[in-house]
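Figure 3 (text version): structure tokens given as input.
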């Protein structure tokens, strides 16, 4: 356990210094890209990942607990992060408390021999006074909800009485949802196939199957044969909202890793161009197409600069799944809460409007463009659409009538991540 604690504390330290969690965790688990560290057992790798994600998920709460336990601030960030990781285990896992403390003290002594006594005293003090410490931590909104205060205030201002549910949903473990490839198998038949393998699941959207317990993809029947893909139920709205039909020329403007592109191709026979600015991530689109035995043209290019890649032929449909704060998917990427800054939201909104305006001229008359984000902040969502429509009198926003959409917004809950959709049509 102490190996996972020490590794997780190093990951948390680097994330708090500004690094991306996924990249940092990959580096911690690998000697070289694609080469797993041989000295780590599968259990240690799993524990290191869980402790890293969990500590960052509840960082706001853990900090307020730790600060009560310290007589003076700890300057050693490695020691501070080790204590936070141990507190996460004591608060949010089923690990035996005495084992957590003993292993944490051992991990601390590996990094700072003189600090073992401090770690022991802090963690045992927490065990003695747990409820009182938690009560004090919860008196601050950051301690109660485990988000930065600016984020909490923004959600409260926008959503009022719904804000608490939205914030708490972002601290849950994310659901694992599959998208059934109905070109290959019906949802009913795939549910029956799961049942044959003793995998519990339920249908929550036309193509979306929610697993009761997440599984590695190699445990999913038919995954490598293209029967299903892993895709959040909220993300599956995009392909259906775009209203594609056989023979259409379609652009997926920010396509990687390819979940929405492949869903579109499962729904209709399309001439689809999958565009992405990141050539390396575009390879993920290629891999998904190959696994599902689907075809699209791949293009490395910037959606905001179409003159560098567009052939001049208009599109019937465009999907603009634009870069955003990712505030609707924080339970999958808890580092986002601590890496984002208030000014970032305006920066994203300006970038989104720029992309939207650039893509609009690629759309044919009477064509439709679906604007999508995985954000819950209106500044990146409806406000961007309003600004765009104020600048373009040849466009209109179409009503969306699908369930779970609240004026285009999907709230994160126990079945879906948070998304926003706006469907625009160009006047004929």
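Below: residues designed for each position.
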């Amino acid at each position: 356990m102490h190996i996972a604690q020490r590794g997780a504390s190093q990951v948390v330290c680097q994330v708090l210094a500004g690094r991306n969690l996924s990249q940092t965790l990959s580096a911690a688990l690998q000697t070289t890209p694609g080469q797993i560290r041989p000295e780590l057992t599968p259990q240690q790798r799993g524990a290191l990942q869980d402790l890293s994600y969990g500590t960052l998920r509840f960082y706001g709460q853990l900090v307020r607990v730790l600060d009560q336990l310290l007589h003076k601030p700890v300057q050693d960030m490695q020691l501070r992060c080790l204590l936070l990781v141990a507190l996460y285990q004591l608060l949010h896992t089923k690990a035996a408390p005495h084992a957590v403390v003993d292993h944490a003290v051992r991990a601390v002594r590996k990094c700072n021999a003189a600090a073992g006594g401090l770690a022991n005293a802090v963690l045992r003090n927490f065990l003695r006074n747990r409820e009182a410490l938690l009560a004090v931590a919860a008196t601050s909104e950051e301690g109660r909800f485990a988000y930065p205060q600016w984020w909490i205030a923004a959600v409260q201002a926008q959503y009022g009485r719904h804000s608490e549910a939205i914030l708490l949903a972002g601290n849950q473990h994310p659901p694992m949802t599959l998208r059934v490839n109905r070109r290959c198998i019906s949802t009913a038949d795939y549910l029956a196939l799961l049942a044959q393998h003793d995998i519990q699941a339920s249908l929550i959207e036309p193509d979306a199957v929610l697993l009761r317990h997440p599984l590695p993809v190699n445990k999913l029947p038919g995954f490598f044969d293209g029967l299903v893909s892993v895709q959040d139920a909220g993300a599956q709205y995009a392909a259906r909202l775009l209203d594609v039909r056989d023979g259409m020329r379609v652009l997926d403007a920010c396509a990687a890793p390819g979940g929405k592109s492949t869903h579109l191709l499962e729904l209709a026979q399309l001439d689809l161009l999958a565009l992405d600015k990141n050539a390396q991530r575009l390879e993920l689109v290629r891999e998904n197409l190959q696994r599902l035995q689907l075809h699209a043209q791949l293009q490395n290019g910037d959606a905001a600069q179409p003159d560098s890649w567009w052939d001049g032929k208009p599109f019937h449909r465009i999907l603009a799944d634009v870069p955003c704060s990712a505030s609707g998917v924080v339970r999958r990427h808890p580092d986002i809460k601590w890496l984002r800054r208030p000014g970032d939201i305006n920066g994203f909104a300006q970038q989104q409007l720029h992309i939207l305006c650039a893509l609009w001229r690629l759309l044919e008359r009477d064509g439709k463009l679906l604007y999508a984000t995985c954000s819950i902040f209106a500044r990146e969502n409806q406000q961007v659409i309003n600004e765009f429509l104020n600048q373009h009198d040849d466009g209109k926003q179409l009503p969306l009538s699908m369930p779970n959409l609240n004026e285009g917004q999907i709230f994160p809950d126990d079945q879906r991540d948070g998304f926003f959709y706006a469907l625009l049509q160009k006047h004929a």
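The mean pLDDT is 95.
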